[in-house]
Amino acid sequence: MNDEYRLRKFLKRADGSPPPSAPDWSSVAARGRRSLRIRRIVLAVATLTAVAGSALIAARITGDVRPPADRPGPYPSPSPGEVNRRCPEAGVVSPGPLGVVVFRSDEDLRVVDVAAAEERVLARAIPFEETTNPVRVSPDGRWVSFGPGRFVPVAGGEVCAPFGRRLSEVAWLPEGNFVATTRRGGFVRGNVRGVVSELLPAGWGASGYALDPGTGVAAVTRLVRAGDGRVREVGLYLVDTATGESSELVDIPPRRAVEPRVAAWAGAGTRMLYWNAPALAASLAADGAPLMVVDTTTGGTSRVADGMLMSDAQIASCRDGDATVVSVGGGREITYGKELAAVRPPSYLAVPLRSAPPGNAFWPDCFDGYVAATVTKDQPERRFGTAPRRIEIFPLDPASPAPPAAIDHGDGAAYEFARFSRRHRGEDQVLLYVRRVRRPTGPAQLWISLPGGRRRALADLGRVGSYYGDYGYDGRLFWYQP
Amino acid sequence: MSHRMMGTRDDDFRAFYTAEAERLHRLALLMTRDRERAADAAQEAFVRTYRAWARVSDPARYVRTTLVNIVRNDYRRWLVSRRVHAGAPPAAARREDDVDEALRVATALSALPAVRRAAVLLRYYEDLPLEMVARILDRPLGTVKSDLHRALKALRPMLDDSSPTVMKEIT
User: Fold this and answer.
1) Distance (Å, rounded) from C-alpha A276 to C-alpha A67?
2) Which residues of B touch A426 (CB under 8 A)?
3) CA nearest B26 in A: which residue?
4) C-alpha to C-alpha distance for A302 and A349, rounded to whole angstroms
5) Which residues in chain A are closer than 8 Å to B36, comparing Cβ atoms?
6) What value, to the nearest 5°, has the Cα angle with vertex A422 and ends A260 and A405?
7) pLDDT of res. B90
8) How close, in Å, is residue A482 to chain B by CA atoms?
9) Torsional class of B39: left (φ above 0), alpha (ψ -120 to 50), beta (otherwise)
10) Hey, what CATH topology would domain A311-471 get?
11) How far apart are alpha carbons A197 and A191 in whole angstroms?
């Protein structure tokens, strides 16, 4: 008789007892209805108060975004020759209930409090070469990382580069102001004081990584080439950023000439999605590569989808940790010929979503495991970024009674980059999105959609995109919610 | 998002409530060790499920997740208030109606931390698969497995009916 059986038997003793008195269903339903009514009244009162009380907010509701007032404190980003390695003290930031968005607007790095619509400049005159790595905010909300290893306090202060002039993209670790990144072929962790510890030695061959923000475990890819360019070592490893322990997760024989590229964590940290990319290609596989999944406990791998563009903007993990939504399909154009599929346990096969909008669906986001959003467009484009685009919100389950909804102001602009608030649920759904003039390098604005169908402009993003159609919003802005 | 017609919502909810009420109230009792608090927590979980009915595709999972969160938040609030007021624990240590079997079982489980207790109940009392337990508790699967392993280890002495420990714990 094992322990589990004995525990089950022990717990079943409770079945003999009368449960606490359950009220009639109708009284529970009546409480539910009352609660719904109260919530709607509170929302209505809050809206009226906000509209009446703030001329600034009223102006923003009409879509008129005023340029932010200059305030003391925004410092120019140092040129590569005059990097300040010592970071200032970062003050405590107390953002409003909807958090802050840190974003690049032309050459400035700015922050806007979403609830109060108050905007500040964090750094001015950022050189183009410092826009390569994405803008990210630390888990404690005090620091912004951007560019090649640049940091600036959210509360305001000088831009600093504690790790020197060049650094790959950093990921903030769960424990406050520590980051992890690849450096000189190794994998390191460090903090804004410039203290660096080596998790994998320089020259090890670290080529990319993805951090599980919940556990601080990173999946790191390895690629070592011989002098003649042939692949000598290739694989996917797990590294615990707290202890430095590492283990090989996927071993790929060098003769196969493929290298793994990390895509995203899935299944609450139990699975890792990655692409099998051609290792000897001079560039990325233009028409996509097979998307694979590996069980992080057993190391077992299987194919998720036959072909998918290697862009993590085409993957969204649902907040419940159950499903991951991916945009798959042939063709090298990011925004055409794609359809949405769900990747779920136990099979982790990409299954087309019957509930998704038909046609071209790309850049998805997932709300709470029940609702997802995607950008869609009807036609291919002769010039990139010129077709009308809208954001469609739909239930993941086709049997769900929730009807689809769309964000499109009907003004001929392109609507894209949908991001759900991670702090709201169900009827309180809050969505951040971008409204862009339909031409390459057109001006764009950041908008927020609030419960009850309200929406307002938050900030100007300046001119976005290029003639090649890559908008890179995910690197341009970051929504921090405490 | 719109909602179902109110009549349909009520009909569906009624069927769901009838099927789940007794089970959920008993689960709440095992988590809280207190009949009044269990009734309150279970009712609140049902009210929230009713409120979210239009977008919930798996109400049985939703109501359990909500119940676990209510009980955990309740426990956290008690921990905070204990620091301030040094008050009594949330469950009465001993009451006249503590004689029934469910309360004895709950008392035996009270040695476990709240999350671990919830994991044990969802897995071995509700017979839910591990993946579902992980989703309800919003914890990685590996963590849940480790929680259950440690909980089993802690409870092992109590599972033997002849053990003096169990007599000490549940009488």
Assistant:
1) 45
2) 1, 51-52, 55
3) A19
4) 8
5) 20
6) 95
7) 44
8) 18
9) alpha
10) Neuraminidase (2.120.10)
11) 9
* pLDDT, tens digit, 9 for 90 and up, residues A406-438: 999 989 899 999 999 887 766 678 999 999 998
For chain B, the structural domain boundaries read 6-170
Per-residue pLDDT tens for A276-322? Answer: 988 766 555 667 889 999 998 888 999 999 888 888 889 998 876 67
| Phi, psi torsion values for A217, nearest 5 degrees | -90, 135
Taking the alpha carbons at both ends of chain B, their separation in whole angstroms is: 52
Cα–Cα distance, A318 to A266 (Å, whole number)? 9
For residue A320, list chain B residues with Cβ-Cβ distance below 8 A: 135, 138
- Three-state DSSP at B98 gives helix
Does residue A335 have a pLDDT over 50? Answer: yes
The residue assigned the tokens 């909807």 is: A98
Chain A interface, best mutation among B49, B120, B141, B163, by max A CB count within 10 A = B141
CATH architecture for the domain at A173-310: 6 Propeller (2.120)
List of chain B residues with pLDDT < 50: 1-5, 83-99, 162-171
Query: A343 - beta bridge partners?
Result: A324, A350
- pTM of the predicted structure, to 2 decimals: 0.62
Question: In A348-442, where do the E strands start and end?
Answer: 350-352, 360-366, 371-377, 390-395, 405-407, 414-420, 431-436
Which of A435, A441, A397, A438 has its CA nearest to residue A418? A435
Q: Which of A343, A317, A216 is nearest to A265 (CA)?
A: A317
- Determine whether domain B6-170 maps to CATH 2.60.40.420: no
Query: Is the CB of A11 less than 8 angstroms away from the CB of B125?
Result: yes
Q: Round to whole Å and give the CA distance between B40 and A21.
A: 10
Write the residue in B10, B26, B57 that is nearest to A400 by C-beta: B57
Chain A nearest-CA residue for B123? A8
Give the span between the Cα atoms of A464 and A440, in whole angstroms.
Answer: 8
